[in-house]
Recover the amino acids of this structure.
């Protein structure tokens, strides 16, 4: 378990204090993939780097397994950082070392394994990230996705308990991004490793995360399970990012678009309800037409979802009751 309590961090900018973190508190469970999303300058990189004290907060506590890491001395901090892997946006590989040499580097720094043991660990990691055939190549010979796989393997070298991903897919094309996200999910599943990632892309959170926190101007403005935050955003910053993502029904202006088409409902289907013929069943049951006006379907990690705007001519309470009885969340959309 990771617990952040009332973190504050300021920087001097042009002679004034710029607040990067403003009373941030969060809990991150062991073994989950936790996303932190926000726009550039929102404070997400600063927040991520407080977890291994690359950025030391001005005040507040960072607890990892009930240990206050802000109170560690230099030796304790070195030990902590060996237990926390970090994956960077721009790879940060050593150009003069091969793939195997880059992965071996943190093992050499730790100095806990014999050369034979280091070789075995490198081979294990190369197999894990799918780069056994590239072990003798240099970074200049690799694609962006391969470089990031080396970065992930290097971050896992010392069997960390926590993996931090700093915009790990931002420099990659969409197809490569999906392969890296699939690899991170596989690592999380196989190793039970806690992963904390920051991103400005809602699609990344939707594809991989269990829970998410939205940071805006240094404050956590919304957090919770991804499906809840994604499908029912309550803060303007979250609603804007969901709208830009284009996969969820960000329908705040639907009332004005369909002002002359009866009463409007926003319907949210999750899990099994997504596959059921709910609208046709309710239409027949109540003998009324239900018009689909706008919406989207997709997946949030492994969970199917659908979100629709529908027009209703009949009695709204009866329609809502019939839909909610079938596991559909209903919200009125004002005209």
């Amino acid at each position: 378990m990771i617990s952040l309590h009332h973190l504050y961090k300021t920087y001097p900018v042009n002679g004034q204090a710029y607040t990067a973190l403003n009373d941030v508190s969060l809990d991150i469970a062991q073994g989950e993939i936790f996303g932190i999303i926000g726009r550039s300058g929102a404070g997400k990189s600063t927040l991520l780097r407080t977890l291994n004290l690359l950025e030391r907060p001005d005040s507040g506590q960072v607890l990892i397994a009930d240990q206050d890491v802000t109170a560690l001395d230099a030796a304790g901090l070195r030990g902590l950082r060996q237990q926390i892997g970090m994956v960077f946006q721009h790879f940060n590989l050593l150009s003069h070392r091969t793939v195997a040499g880059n992965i071996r580097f943190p093992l050499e720094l730790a100095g806990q394994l014999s050369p034979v043991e280091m070789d075995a660990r490198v081979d294990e990691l190369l197999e894990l990230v799918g780069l056994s055939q590239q072990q003798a190549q240099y970074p200049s010979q690799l694609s962006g996705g391969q470089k990031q796989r080396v970065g992930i393997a290097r971050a896992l070298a010392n069997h960390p308990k926590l993996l931090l991903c700093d915009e790990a897919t931002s420099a990659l094309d969409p197809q490569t991004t999906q392969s890296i996200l699939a690899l991170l999910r596989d690592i999380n599943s196989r190793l039970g490793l806690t992963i904390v990632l920051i991103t400005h892309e809602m699609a990344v959170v939707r594809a991989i995360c269990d829970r998410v926190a939205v940071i805006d101007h240094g404050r956590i403005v919304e957090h919770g399970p991804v499906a809840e935050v994604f499908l029912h955003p309550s803060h303007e910053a979250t609603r804007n990012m969901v709208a830009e993502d284009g996969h969820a029904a960000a329908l705040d202006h639907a009332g004005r678009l369909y002002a002359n088409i009866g009463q409007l409902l926003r319907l949210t289907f999750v899990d099994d309800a997504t596959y059921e013929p709910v609208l046709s069943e309710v239409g027949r049951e109540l003998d009324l037409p239900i018009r689909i006006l706008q919406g989207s379907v997709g997946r949030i990690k492994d969970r199917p979802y659908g979100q629709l705007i529908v027009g209703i001519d009949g009695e709204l309470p009866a329609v809502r009751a019939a839909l909610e009885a079938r596991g559909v969340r209903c919200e009125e959309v004002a005209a």
